[in-house]
Amino acid sequence: MNPMNPNDPMEQAAEETVPVTGYCRTCGRGLTDLTKRAALGTVYCEEHFPSVNVPPPVDSPSPYAQASPTVASGAPVLAFILGFIPGVGAIFNGQYAKGFVHVVIFGLLVSILESGEFNGGMAPLFGITLGAFVFYQAFEAYHTAKAKAAGITVDEFSSIVPVRSRSGLPVAPILLILAGVLFLMANLGYLHVAQVIRFWPVLLIVLGAWMLGSRLRGEVEPQSHEQR
Amino acid sequence: MNSVSQLVAALRGPVMLIAVGALFLLRFDGPGWSIHTSWPLLIIVFGVMKLLESVASKTPSGTGGVS
Amino acid sequence: MRRGSLIAPLVLIAIGALFLINNLNPGLSVFATAGRYWPYILIGWGVLRALEILYTYQQGRRLPTAGLSGGEWFLAVFLAFVGMGITGYSGFRDGFFPGRITMRGLDMFGESFDYPLSASIPAGDAKRILIDNLRGNARIVGTDSAEVQVNGRTTVRAFDESDAKRVGEQAKLTLVSEGGQIVLRTNQAQVSNDQRISSDLDISVPKGFSVECRGRYGDFDISTVTGDVDVRSGNAGVRLEDIGGAVRIDLGRSDIVRAIRIKGSVDIKGRGSDLELDDVQGPVTVLAPYYGELQFRNIASQMRYESANSTILFERIPGYVRLSGGDLTATKVIGPARISSENKDVRISEFTNSLDIDVKRGDVELFPGTDKFGRISVTTRNGDIDFGLPAGTNMHLQATTDRGEIENDFDPELKEDRRDRGATLEGTPGAGPEVKLKSGRGTITIRKAMAGEHDWDTSETPREPRPTRAPRPPVPPRVTNQ
């Protein structure tokens, strides 16, 4: 690893030879192990590293809010109302990809209900999920808009579980590929959805084990304001 | 100033777009797969791109940009 | 900078080229071309963007964090939806939705294997048949024979023949007599993934039978039975002809329900699209939203339709009542009739007895044609009222509009009174029924009109019922590629 001057993160050339391990939350600049500064459960570059004494910036605008590129005069109430229309709340907050994902989830739930495939058995579950999802979108949009209004930079998809452990195992991509393979096999008739669905609690167990593992290793948990 | 992982990240969108178009085409210009069947491939492509991205970010990016 | 990239002009060029090709080869339709080749636009777009990014990388300039912006994804998805729409429209439907059964949900990949079905059983004392066919169409015909006969075929989608055989073994057709009724089951629920299997059935039963059908997906055609008919399905088209008993239909979804020459009552529940009832002796009750076109002809007893925001009631319908979109059109109907709806334009001609209309938004046109009508009450909160009747009709008229005018071409004796922005018109040309017209906002017109002047049906002769579609004949086992 090449030594580099931690006081001069603008020295971009040095980064070419050092692996980037994170990106500044405020300015998005690539950071190496040497240049990144952990604070408030995430990383910042030297320039945007907040003073640790700053109180959690929920209601009062924080001193570094002005530097944030995503500060918007978000209207949380409007976001909340628009949030009831699938995807629109997220789009209002400028999170297009999330809006798209919301629309897809909503559409999937509706088509599952409409298809009548699960009539009698799972239909109530999907019905309730659909209702809950509508409210989730509204409140999600509200909280995002509120955070934005308060000058907090929000990730489009921040996770409840730390999907990238320090060991660097790319969990999210692997999970995605596995899910894709499962769906494809189901579509091709190699396995039957009903048989797979029976094993859904395994997901909970794996998730719990993962969280347990990362906590035992003493990794930093995301702060509450990120858990959206 | 660009690393390989950034390149892979930037290419993710276009690659997904090509995959979407290809899946829609498969139905017409040949028998067999329709988008109804093959859509999970899009998830797989997305996952593979993300995986490549994280692999590339860990390998020393000596092959990076030639600025 | 990439924001002003080459994509937009190239998309324009592609669309232009598409239309040019279409103009130079008039044989090709633009829709057919677009429906076939639109995915290439996505691919071309992706390739161009990828080349742009590689070029940027090669030049060592700053790469975008996302290859495609949110807006671009939105556009791409929009394009895909439009493309799928065109594809469906231009007759490539088979390309996207191979077959009825696999149309919804997770599509299956594999081959389809057909097995013929055949069974028969003497009717004995049984007077009814229960048909339980989860997926597939069934046609039931009453005949003079004294036995129940079933022909048809089962289609299994599977990867290889042994798999198909296994599935076929699990779902064997059973035809038994139990508890005074004949029970026909295709037992598709025995198969772990019942979506892979469907059975088309051609069933003949003795004429006097009652028929009860259960299913999840598939059409039912039932004709010439004198007993009751009961159909319950998740998604079905139902066609009934010459039924002697009562009809009960309960569907989760439906493209069409048609019942012709029914001696008993008709009860419809659930949900659906088009509904056509012709020549029904018993009372008709539709307690369900049907979103398409509804037609009622020659209903000899009371007709009642109720959905979330409409209630429609006629005592008898010797003529017809048609409901489609926001319109209700009726001719030759007998009251007492009641129509209340959120949003409907109502046109009724040649009606007798009393009539009560209450709409929130919509125009109302009434042409009784004769003086045989009873008490009339029309209320629309927002809409015009057009009331035309033969000259010299006796009645006690009271018309009010809160905002709007009243035009009186019927009888100058009627007393008009303008106030604020509204008007009233009152008078009694001769002792007769009470007629109350009331509009919250709109014009009320009273004029002379002759009988038969407003028969909207003349423009469109009663549609001949389309012939019922017979299931495909059974075929010997064969292997077909998808």
In short:
The complex is a heterotrimer of chains A (228), B (67) and C (482). With 67 residues, chain B is mainly α. Chain B is 72% helix and 0% strand.
Q: Which features would summarize this protein structure in a list?
A:
heterotrimer; A: 228 residues; globular; disordered C terminus; B: 67 residues; mainly alpha; 3 helices; elongated
Mind explaining what this structure looks like?
- The complex is a heterotrimer of chains A (228), B (67) and C (482).
- Chain A has 228 residues and is mainly alpha-helical.
- Chain A contains 8 helices and 4 strands.
- Chain A has a two-stranded antiparallel ribbon. Chain A has a two-stranded antiparallel sheet with strand order 3-4.
- With 67 residues, chain B is mainly alpha-helical.
- Chain B has helices at 4-28, 35-38, 40-58.
- Residues 28-32 and 61-67 of chain B have low confidence and may be disordered.
- The longest helix of chain C is centred in the first third of the chain and has 30 residues, at 30-59.
- Chain C has a 33-stranded mixed sheet that branches.
- Chains in contact: A-B, A-C, B-C.
- Chains B and C meet through helix 1 and helix 2 of B and helix 2 and helix 3 of C.
In what order do the strands lie side by side in the largest sheet of chain A? 1-2
User: What would you call the shape of chain C?
Assistant: flat
**Roughly what percent helix of chain A?**
40-55%
In round numbers, the mean pLDDT of chain A is 68
How far apart the termini of chain C lie comes to 48 Å
Cα distance spanning the termini of chain A: 37 Å
Low-confidence stretches of chain A: 1-16, 52-72, 221-228
Task: Decide which structural class fits the backbone of chain C.
Answer: alpha/beta
Proportion of beta-strand residues of chain C: over 45%
- Which consecutive residue ranges of chain C, at least 5 long each, have pLDDT under 50? 89-109, 458-470, 478-482
Give the assembly state of these chains: heterotrimer
Largest binding interface between chains = B-C, 33 and 44 residues
Q: What does the largest sheet of chain A look like?
A: 2 strands, antiparallel
